[in-house]
User: Which sequence fits this backbone?
DNA sequence: CTGAAAGCGCTTACAG
DNA sequence: CTGAAAGCGCTTACAG
């Protein structure tokens, strides 16, 4: 194979030092004189030398690579999460390997095997769930696992999640306090742990309060589904006047259906609460009252753990973060909130 | 360093073959008997062996890594581009290294040096522009460069771009045909090549037709800027009745300002055209008439080139794709369109 | 088809 | 502080 790029030997020759000296110069804290380092940097500069991280990764226990595994990465919430994670990772001197899955467990496993192939220091799983045996293979390879909004743990991993059920309860209480009489839950059939948590919290609060709920669940978690959900809900004889949507995308669809297809006034005739606090929730056409996912907080927790955790061991950690309610314009005003 | 994972030697021992045989078994088309390969796969399976791509990349001329370099990756258009690129890359057996920049040339250069460190097969640049000298360093390292919507070429690279100016001209013609009398151009101050192209096309068409234009340019390319732009434009005594926004995000803001802050009817009193065809443009609150960026086409062109191009040479290629107009509801209907 | 050997570019004890 | 040497896990001529 043709030698393709300048290597440490070239730099060593030009600087008149050994290969080891070159290596040390690029290793923070290594024992090398300031003079030698200066000569090396000088030579590296003129030759355009960059340490080969592939070779370095072969020897050190770290490659600096972290796999980000997610489905539907162009969705507003997901791309926010990805952007925050990538930024934090870069600040910590790591680089993100982005692997797009289709949310099936098979494709998550494929992604994880890829990650192992590249000996990533860690993998952040945002969609699907790796089998326990595969998680153990990762662990054995010294790879850390970060599970975001997943419903199970895996040995040696950190699980970061929101208190989705609590948010669901709060959504119920809020709609009741706003004076809504006919409550509905609008959700997708994706069946992710996050969605399930929100649904359960909302339902549990309703059942405890002894109020009946209309539950509508359709297709995937998208704006289009929201539109369908809204259309279906608003056409009912006992049309709901308060809807908790498990996602902002769904909520935007529900709002558009209610307003444009039925001409209902929000929040006068209909109150809507979403979840995620995506950019679009702030847009004037929506001004959606919703719950903010602490995206930055999740990214911080993940990267801090990667930086500080000692060798991964069998025990798993779970971190639970609260979702904070953001008051905007889609819930009828009432006294005493907050 | 502690041996961290199972390697080819382990598999060879278990299968009773040489390391070379293991290597060949995992190389499509290598000369190895079906029998040997079967034994190897069997052993690899029980040991949970994954070829180490870092070591492989050290030897082969390809690492399978492709760097994706972009700013504001959580923006709708950008995340669509990223998703398409990542998907195509995965189909081609590559994996994406995602590097988030702040659009300054310095941070693009930092990103490119990272890419060199990991010996990526290619780098796809979507923001900023690498200096010619750095581009040459990439080329020397056998790294291909894909420039998306950039205004210059670089030796040995492919540049993929849209005919932005033509779209700008078409936007002008469309607004005129719709009967708009007071035309405006609404854009940001980001000054990217794409924006500049659209602005120039629109302005050139106006000047050729001898019509005066109101030009408004503010801040960054965001919904908020669109809101400001719309507010500013609608407050003018000679309020425009036809606005070309260089981006959908801007257009959504302009629409919301016009409708919610001034109560104008779209398209009756105001026609608006955007650019990008992001998801939100399809939402019922907007139903924006816009130009579709051929995101899939761009991703295809990039990955095809990476797959088929022989060794990068000095010559650069430019591919220009058309932006297709998508008729929706924000331009006043008129005869003879299309 | 198969294996022993050389080599990719690095880092890190080891000895000085 | 410094260099020679061993070794990380792989692939690929080379010879059989």
Assistant:
């Amino acid at each position: 194979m043709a030698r393709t790029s300048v290597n440490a030997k070239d730099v060593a020759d030009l600087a008149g030092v050994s290969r080891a000296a070159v290596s040390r110069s690029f290793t923070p804290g290594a024992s090398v004189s300031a003079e030698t380092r200066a000569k090396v940097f000088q030579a590296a500069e003129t030759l355009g030398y960059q340490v080969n991280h592939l070779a370095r990764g072969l020897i050190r226990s770290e490659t600096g690579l972290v796999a980000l595994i997610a489905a539907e990465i162009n969705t507003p919430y997901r791309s926010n999460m990805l952007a925050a994670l990538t930024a934090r990772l870069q600040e910590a001197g790591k680089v993100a390997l982005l692997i797009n899955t289709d949310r099936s467990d098979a494709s998550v496993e494929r992604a994880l095997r890829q990650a192992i192939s590249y000996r990533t220091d860690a993998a952040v799983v945002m969609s699907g769930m790796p089998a326990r045996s595969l998680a153990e293979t990762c662990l054995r390879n010294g790879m850390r696992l970060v599970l975001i909004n997943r419903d199970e743990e895996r040995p040696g991993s950190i699980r970061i999640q929101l208190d989705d059920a609590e948010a669901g309860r709060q959504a119920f209480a809020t709609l009741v306090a706003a004076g809504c009489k006919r409550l509905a839950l609008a959700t997708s059939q994706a069946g992710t742990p996050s969605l399930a948590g929100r649904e359960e919290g909302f339902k549990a609060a309703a059942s405890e309060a002894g109020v009946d709920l209309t539950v509508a669940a359709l297709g995937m978690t998208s704006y289009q589904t929201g539109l369908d959900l809204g259309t279906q809900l608003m056409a009912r004889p006992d049309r709901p006047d308060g809807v908790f949507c498990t996602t902002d995308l769904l909520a935007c669809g529900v709002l558009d259906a209610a307003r444009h297809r039925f001409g209902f006034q929000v929040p006068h005739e209909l109150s809507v609460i979403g979840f995620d606090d995506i950019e679009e929730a702030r847009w004037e056409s929506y001004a959606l009252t919703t719950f903010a996912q602490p995206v930055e907080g999740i990214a911080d927790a993940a990267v801090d753990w990667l930086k500080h955790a000692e060798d991964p061991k069998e025990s798993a950690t779970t971190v639970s973060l609260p979702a904070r309610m953001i008051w905007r314009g889609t819930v009828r005003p009432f006294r005493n909130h907050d």
Remarks:
- Chain A is about 45% helix and 15% strand.
- The first strand of chain A starts at residue 65 and ends at 71.
- The longest helix of chain A spans residues 193-209.
- The mean pLDDT of chain A is 93.
